[in-house]
Amino acid sequence: MDLVPALEQPLKKVLGPATAKVMAEHLGLHTVGDLLHHYPRRYEERGQLTHLADLPMDEHVTVVAQVADARLHTFASSKAPGGRGQRLEVTITDGSGRLQLVFFGKGVHKPHKELLPGTRAMFAGKVSVFNRRLQLAHPAYELLHGDAEETVETWAGALIPIYPATAKLESWKIGKAVQTVLPSAQEALDPLPPALREGRGLVPLPEALLKIHRPHTKADIADARARLKWDEAFVLQVALARRRHTDAQLPAVPRRPRPDGLLTAFDARLPFTLTEGQQKVSREIFEDLATEHPMHRLLQGEVGSGKTLVALRAMLAVVDAGGQAALLAPTEVLAQQHHRSVVEMMGELAEGGMLGGADNATKVVLLTGSMGAAARRQALLDLATGEAGIVIGTHALIEDKVQFHDLGLVVVDEQHRFGVEQRDALRGKGKQPPHLLVMTATPIPRTVAMTVFGDLETSVLDQLPAGRSPIASHVVPAADKPHFLSRAWERVREEAAAGHQAYVVCPRIGDEEDDPKKSGQRKPAGEEADKRPPLAVLDVADQLASGPLKGLAVEVLHGRMQPDDKDAVMRRFAAGETDVLVATTVIEVGVNVPNATVMVIMDADRFGVSQLHQLRGRVGRGSAPGLCLLVTEMPEASPARQRLNAVAATLDGFELSRIDLEQRREGDVLGQAQSGTRSSLRMLAVIDDEEIIAEAREEATRVVAADPELTGLPALRTALDALLDEEREQYLEKG
Fold it and tell me: Which of the residues 155, 240, 308, 354 has an alpha carbon 20 to 30 A from that of 138?
């Protein structure tokens, strides 16, 4: 055997530099193993032709069809005066429809000889329309003639793999390359422990690779898929189980609240009782805090379910036990907001060391990047001496200069904004690893939680506190029914007249240079971006203040304002001095103004489902009912409108997160969008394969508990190293 294992051979050596270069650049395939794991997207049956009647426009397609007719025309053109230009028109059919193929110039000679009526071939190209008829211009093609010994029956019934292809490399060229490397599949190391594979009746890996690329029957494909899905789920779950196992070996200081300490005094101050959900989740957290290993818990809660209160009680328990707690927020606006609300909830208990502070009070400090030097020095001093029991801040907390007296708990708000490396940097500030609580208001379906947050235990808060009002949501079709939009602004005026306030959210700020790249937000896949750029905060605020909302106090808030200005705007809005706040999504998370009852989202089709749900959660936070209006110009039948209708139809975030996932590609779900690497899930579908993921998690936990270093499973170790090398960025860092 070679010094380099067969599957690690560079494709350049096997397929030649030209093909290998295209595969690397366009498909991200570099080795024989990469190519063997580039699975067919679907299979054509030679006997059962693709329906030409259903071809999608502007997409690269591969069809199997028969030539019905071929004609060569000559014409005059600037390049060929005197009528010497040539155009070959070939009509192909599959019984369901007809399709025109066109070849020009020197490109007509070969197809003219080969594409005779009755010839069957695979054709690939981009579908376009010419003279109101579908056509493929200069398609690549491959004639289908069975070898002499191949009988017509087997030829017609054979399954032709159709691979995810690019304009530079057609499916059958990829297929030929796969056939070249397929013998190496025999040397594929099988990562599944034999007992697991046999117990579940899964075929060995070399067999699965042969069957996925060269199936004889549909049963072959099913066997191969079942096996390859297990590989992906299991190797990923082993990576996460090992991370949990490693974390569980770390020492931590148990933190138990004093019976008559700060937490008891705080609970006595609360003007309401905790919901059952809050009590249950608090118990889970306090049990974790009392152990000698660091807590790693994900707290999922619907918008407004009272996560912050649960987190604050955990922080107070740690302060009671002599430690410090840090709350990490993704933005300055949010850090300031958390600081304000924590200080308000705690009252004199937050005034440690000050006149009027309670006896057992502590100090709550804020630390952000834009603070003045003096305030910053004081905050750093309070942390180092232990004077401050609670610190709330942005990633400024992670900087080297920040020293803690005894960091016992880290609470991370809106986890999807922070990677694991940032969590780890903050955890490194403790003398021993601190406990970790991660909060998110984006509901995550169970399978995604098991896949993306697999290193955390999960608690869910799914009931809203008493006194929360329902939110009515409606789609406002501004283009079809302009009077609906006028009515929306009347509703805002009515709420303002009743003493309430409103948010108006826009996709962009409006002070950018007119760079279409910057201003045009990425539209959801499959929808044509309309010509008009997305509405901007500055423009909309001016139009409203001088038009439909004239006479009301209208202010703007966006991410490029100075931090002090942002804070001043938020304070005025919270104090009720501003009627309408026109903002970008900076208000998406954590902003809490109970008196705000209306949320108008302009160009709502430009936002994702979970983002709309987050924004909507900013209203209905008090006793008055909330109203959310989703304004869009998209036509009724468009996918964008269907998405908005789904958001308007339910307030259940878990239901919406499923819809969101079904509409996005798997890779986006797993953070591929942020990290730029390919998703390692090529076969597994996070939503559909829930059972496999859950079973793989159990098996992985069992395997890692028995053999944490995987010494007895060298092939699994190899697969794990490959996953972690390729995906370390994606899974474990982007978390």
Answer: 155
Angle value at C-alpha 92, between 86 and 94, nearest 5 degrees: 175
- DSSP 8-state code for residue 349: G
The predicted model gives 332-345 an average pLDDT of 87
* CA dihedral sign of residues 474, 475, 476, 480: negative
Alpha-carbon distance of 705 to 627, in angstroms, equals: 51
Q: Is the pLDDT at 730 greater than 80, yes or no? A: no
Q: According to DSSP H, which parts of 394-505 are helical? A: 420-427, 446-452, 482-497
- Tokens linked to 194: 């034999």
DSSP letter for each residue of 376-405: HHHHHHHHHHT-EEEEEESGGGGSTT---S
DSSP 138: S
C-alpha 196: how far from its chain's center?
Answer: 31
Alpha-carbon span 504 to 492, nearest angstrom: 10
- What is the CA 25 to chain-centroid distance, rounded? 24
55 or 496, greater pLDDT: 496
Residue with tokens 């045009």: 520
The whole-number pLDDT of residue 726 equals 55
In which order are the strands placed within the sheet that holds 596-601?
471-477, 626-632, 596-601, 501-505, 580-583, 554-557
Asked if residue 470 has pLDDT above 80, the reply is: no
With a CB cutoff of 8 Å and minimum separation 6, the contacts of 33 are: 7, 8, 188
Q: Which letter does DSSP use for residue 731 in this model?
A: I
N-to-C CA span, the chain: 39
DSSP label at residue 192: S
Strands 457-461 and 159-162: unpaired
- Tens digit of each residue's pLDDT (9 = 90 or more) over 393-424: 987 787 768 889 999 999 988 655 555 666 66
Provide the b/e sequence for 8-44 (b: ≥16 CB within 10 Å): ebebbebbeeebbebbbeebebebbbbbbbbbbeeeb
AA identity, residue 298: L
Q: Using CB atoms within 10 A of its CB, is residue 209 exposed (0-12), middle (13-18) or buried (19+)?
A: buried
Distance of CA 733 to CAs 242, 420, 428, 632, Å? 15, 5, 16, 36
Beta strands at 159-162 and 42-45: parallel, antiparallel or unpaired: antiparallel
The Cα-based distances of 505 to 159, 604, 614 in angstroms read 52, 9, 12
State the DSSP code for 107.
G
By CB atoms closer than 10 A (0-12, 13-18, 19+), residue 594 is middle
Confidence of residue 246 (pLDDT cuts 50, 70, 90): confident
Residue 430 contacts residue 408 (beta carbons within 8 Å): yes
φ, ψ for residue 435 (rounded to 5)?
-70, 155
Tokens of 261: 């300490």
The predicted pLDDT at position 80 comes to 60
Helix 714-727 to helix 218-249 angle, to the nearest 10 degrees?
Answer: 80
Is residue 341 predicted with pLDDT exceeding 80?
yes
| Position 735 pLDDT exceeds 50 | no
**Is the predicted pLDDT of residue 88 greater than 60, yes or no?**
yes
Question: Per-residue pLDDT tens for 574-603?
Answer: 889 999 999 988 776 556 788 999 999 999
How far is the CA of 60 from the CAs of 91, 316, 524, in angstroms? 18, 59, 20
- The pLDDT, as a whole number, for residue 657 is 73
Interval 34-44 mean pLDDT: 86
Hey, which residues does 393 pair with through a beta bridge?
328, 367
Question: What amino acid occupies position 73?
Answer: H
pLDDT of residue 516: 42
Question: Quick check: 600 and 504 in contact, CB under 8 A?
Answer: yes
Q: Are strands 85-93 and 42-45 parallel, antiparallel or unpaired?
A: unpaired
State percent of the chain over pLDDT 90: 29
